[in-house]
Task: inverse folding
């Protein structure tokens, strides 16, 4: 399968199989399709980076919201 010139779409829970065979991993989450180059290990690495970035952005927004709420309480 790995050396095949054909496009093969498969679904598996076997992470080792996915990592050994896949050139791309596709994730469907909340109706949105995301494509990751490489096998399962690469997918996990990229997904972790994305989630960490989202968490950092979320934390920054919460801090900004808290700061602006404090400013409103003092200023009004």
Result:
């Amino acid at each position: 399968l790995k050396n095949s010139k054909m496009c093969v779409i498969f679904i598996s829970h076997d992470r080792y199989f996915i990592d050994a065979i896949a050139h791309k991993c596709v994730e469907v989450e909340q109706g949105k399709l995301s494509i990751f180059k490489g096998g399962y290990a690469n997918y996990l690495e990229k997904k972790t980076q994305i989630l960490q970035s989202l968490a950092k952005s979320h934390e920054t927004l919460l801090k900004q919201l808290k700061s602006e709420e404090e400013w409103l309480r003092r200023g009004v």
Remarks:
- The beta strands are 24-29, 32-37.
